Amino acid sequence: MTETVSFSIPSLIKRAVFLCLGLIIMAFGVAFSIKAALGTSPISSVPYVTGAISGLSVGTTTIIMNTLFVLIQILILRRQYQWVQLLQLPAAVLFGMAIDVAGWMIDGLTPTAYWQKWLVCLVGIFLVALGVSVEVTARLITTAGEGIVLAICQVAPVKFGNMKMTFDLTLVALSIILSFTFLGHLDGVREGTVAAAVLVGQLTKQLTKPMAAFEKTCLN
């Protein structure tokens, strides 16, 4: 699913720390997006809605969803599954716990005006993009959501970009269906969701070069 790369022990330790940092940054991005109340990013839309339905925290539902994603990867790839990707499970636990901690830390942030909500939303989008860039730069494991996309691409003749878009749209559609079915109204999917879908990828591309330079200088 991902390219196998050998690292020295010091480099591996630094990359593991960098991966954890990326997950924590992403978690703060999710927390800011939730606080903005303009809709979460596509990957967080299902945990947000299922959390609202069940009463569980978004962090808890994120852990559950990512665990299901890992199981789906195994079912898709079977013997081709790289068992090192089971490290996605502790990464998912860290990510979920960090979302709840981040939400607690910014609990006092209360944007009221529409422009204030957009400002908080954009901060969240930037943090998600930065966290993704940091996580990718670590080059250890993929996130569970990205792992599903890569697994499908490995067994089907479909491009990663097209599959990623389809996967994100599927999550958003599922969130909308769950929201109307169990809550009676639309929740967690708004204009901020569209902005995140468009901007996270673009910002991640812009961060590629500085992150590559950082990896060469500090992680190798």
UniProtKB/TrEMBL annotation:
* InterPro entries recorded: YczE/YyaS-like (IPR038750)
Where are the bilayer-spanning segments? 12-32, 52-77, 89-106, 112-132, 169-186
Q: Which domain of life is it from?
A: Bacteria
Alphabetically list the UniProt keywords. Membrane, Transmembrane, Transmembrane helix
Q: Name one Pfam family in it.
A: DUF6198
- What PANTHER family does the entry give? INTEGRAL MEMBRANE PROTEIN, INTEGRAL MEMBRANE PROTEIN-RELATED
**Can you name this protein?**
YitT family protein
User: Which lineage is the organism of this entry classified under, starting from the top rank?
Assistant: Bacteria, Bacillati, Bacillota, Clostridia, Eubacteriales
